[in-house]
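[stage:ingest] chain + small molecule (S-adenosylmethionine)
[stage:ingest] validated
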Amino acid sequence: MGKTSKDKRDIYYRRAKEEGWRARSAFKLLQIDDEFNIFEGVHNAVDLCAAPGSWSQVLSKKLLTENEENPDRQRIVAVDLQAMAPVHGVKQIQGDITNINTAKEITSHFQNSKADLVVCDGAPDVTGTHCMDIYIQSQLLLAALNITTHILKPGGTFVAKIFRTRDVTLLYAQLRVFFPYIHCSKPWSSRNSSIEAFVVCKNYSPPEGYTPHMMNPLLIHKPCDFDELTGINRVIVPFVVCGDLGQPDSDTCYPLNFEGKEYTYHEPVQTPIDPPYQEALSLLADRDTDFRRPDVSVVVDNLNSMTI
Ligand code: SAM
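[stage:predict] done
[stage:export] tokens:
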């Protein structure tokens, strides 16, 4: 595959590199903000599942760089299992969002106050088994909601990736326990062919007497017939497409000179730091000098047989 083929196939990928975003997902959060004004009045913000960091870049830009009033009052925390290159003004925690210590570390950075905004673009490693991937994604959303109940101020906003599948109503019902206003939004830069969307939940209002806890996750643990969710248990959430509909379509391939500009190839803004395959890459680099080492030749054989 040539260096420019992904640029041709994905205009938002290309634009992200041109504009300095680490991932095309930045446009999704920007378009959600265009529609829902999620940064208004926000001082403390948390980016859950943040690596490689394009949503943190958006938070940094909106709350620090573009904030003319008092950028010193804003605090931003980013959490991910993986290490992430630094982002201006963002405190990083390398940790798991299902761990209570992560919640404690976040609030300690806010000097034991809470967040006004929590965003989560979390995605597990895909297994390729569709129903399993959807199940794990829904568990990650619930984990994000769970930690959010520890760290979000009453009245605060929660934005998270959701897969719109058959049983999504159950997730909406769970979110509705904590938020009176929920929209399901599809940013224009999110591919139509993807079941991904984002819930925008406003005015966090936990039920009276609710005590946040990590050990007993949300939702019931016994089998549930989703079709039985009726009446007040069946939450119908408005669906909103957001972003400027005059912008390019995220599923279309555009020519490289599409916008009338001369095309220049840009390297990715931030390559992964310390990725799990780092050792394999260094062994591969050594292969000419060290090809007779048995561990090197096994790795090289494996890499050669992989289709990337
Ligand atoms: N929003 C990011 C951006 O704009 O650059 C992209 C996020 S990426 C799609 C999903 C991230 O979720 C991965 O970096 C992964 O490590 C993280 N993740 C998955 N499970 C997690 C967990 N339990 N705790 C923390 N991070 C997690």
